[in-house]
Amino acid sequence: MKKVFAIAILLVLARLLLAPVNSAKAAPFLVANPEQVTLAAGQTLTYNVSGLPSGFTSAANVPADSTGAYAFALDLATLAGGSYTVTATACLNDPVQGQVCSAASSPFSFTRIGPPPAPSTLGLAIKQ
């Protein structure tokens, strides 16, 4: 009986150790801390970012989290390598009064690494 129990435990452990692992791919995100903002009916909140190429300039219609706070995370996965200095503003969009924006944030600088150069001069050799 002890052998059957030990074999069962080993099979369960082997299954756990050899099971495929689901991994999430994380991209770099430009994030802002959550802020408490009260939106009236029809109003939306937009974060505008300057200092990045087009396509990375805003996070529109940002939903509130479970606490009612608003924040944004701008996905930078496809951003080209280079050095960037960015600022952001929060803009309240009102259907009657138009858009009212905050002052710009403090500048934030970061470097996104680029890919290495492609291998060149491929050929065959007898030894390495």
Which helices and strands, and how do they pair?
Layout: H1 2-18, E1 29-31, E2 35-36, E3 44-50, E4 58-59, E5 69-70, E6 73-75, E7 82-94, E8 98-101, E9 108-112
Antiparallel strand pairs: 1-6, 2-5, 3-4, 3-7, 7-8, 7-9
Short summary:
The chain has 128 residues and is α+β, with helices and mostly antiparallel strands.
Your description of this structure?
The termini are far apart. The chain has 128 residues and is of the alpha+beta class. β7 (82-94) and β8 (98-101) form a beta hairpin. The chain has a domain at 27-112. The longest helix has 17 residues, at 2-18. It has one helix at 2-18, and strands at 29-31, 35-36, 44-50, 58-59, 69-70, 73-75, 82-94, 98-101, 108-112. Strands 3, 4, 7, 8 and 9 form a five-stranded antiparallel beta sheet that branches. The protein has a two-stranded antiparallel ribbon with strand order 1-6. A two-stranded antiparallel ribbon has the order 2-5.
Structural descriptors:
5-stranded antiparallel sheet; two-stranded antiparallel ribbon; 1 helix; 13% helix
Query: What low-confidence regions span 5 or more consecutive residues with pLDDT below 50?
Result: 19-25
Kindly report the average pLDDT value. Answer: 80
- Largest sheet descriptor: 5 strands, antiparallel
Number of strands: 9
Work out the strand percent: 25-35%
Termini Cα gap: 57 Å
SSE order, as H and E?
A: HEEEEEEEEE
| Global Rg | 25 Å
